[in-house]
Every structure is written in structure tokens, then in C-alpha cells.
Amino acid sequence: MSMLSISGLRVRYGTTVAVDGLDLAMASSGALALLGANGAGKSSTLKAVSGLVPYEGEAVFDGVSLRGMPPSASPGSGSSTCPRGGGCSATSPCWRTCRSA
Q1: pTM for this structure?
Q2: pLDDT (tens digit, 9 = 90+) per residue, 13-50?
Q3: What torsion, rounded to 10 degrees, do the Cα atoms 87, 13, 19, 45 define?
Q4: Residue 15 structural domain
């Protein structure tokens, strides 16, 4: 059984499709990195499974559907997004989030 399973993920912003039909599975002992060019849908994928944007398809973490789950109720997924650009310091919320993941 996969710890994280995504099937048919589709994320839209208005009429713009950011992610179209993504399927992936991650084992409980694994790590996952999303790599791609700017605009490839990496951040949109993370936002979808974190409950920050609506999506079509299915995302399941440890047997629990993530659909409609608010970010505050994420089942201890250990997922986080640390945007680059602004940088992270030892006192920033971003740094604390990345350290706790």
C-alpha cells in the first residue's frame, strides 16, 4: 500500500489547467521530489494535496482521502511547502515548517 497515492489529479485556475491527469504513488519508506520547469505544476500539485486549492481526481494519504480536508486537519502528512525567493531564516515560519516536515 502506498503512503501517498494520487490519481487523475487536475488543478485549474479559472480556465487555465495547471496540472492535467497526474498519477503517482509513494511508498511509506520513500521520499518524493517534484522536479520540472517553471509552470510545470509542481506547486499546484503540493497546494492541491495540502488542501490549499480545489482539485479533481483523488489524493489519498495513508488510506485517508484528502478531498475537502482543510490544511489544519491534514493527517500528519509531513508535507510542507517552503517557497523560495523570500528566503528562510531560523526565525521565519517557513523555516519552522521545513524543520518540522
Answers
A1: 0.72
A2: 999 999 999 999 888 877 778 888 888 999 899 889 88
A3: 40
A4: 4-68+76-100
